[in-house]
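RECORD TYPE: inverse folding
INPUT: structure tokens
STRUCTURE:
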């Protein structure tokens, strides 16, 4: 994520500039979508591992599902 704010101006100050807030929102939404695209295959793989015969694999898959689900929920 690149910043077009002049040197010495924080992201919050830049958000007060006309149009900058909209740009920041678009960048945040794009990042959220990118992260969801990355996490989805991990969640699908963990979901498959929940059906494994080995209880140790199932336990770790449950941990993976919880972690990925928590990450997705935090993104809103």
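DESIGNED SEQUENCE:
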């Amino acid at each position: 994520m690149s910043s077009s704010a002049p040197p010495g101006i924080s992201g919050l100050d830049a958000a007060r500039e006309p149009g900058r807030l909209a740009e920041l929102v678009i960048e945040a939404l794009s990042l959220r979508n990118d992260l969801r695209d990355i996490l989805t295959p991990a969640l699908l793989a963990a979901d498959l591992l929940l059906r494994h015969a080995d209880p140790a694999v199932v336990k770790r898959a449950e941990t993976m599902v919880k972690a990925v689900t928590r990450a997705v929920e935090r993104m809103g």
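NOTES: The chain has one domain: 11-75.
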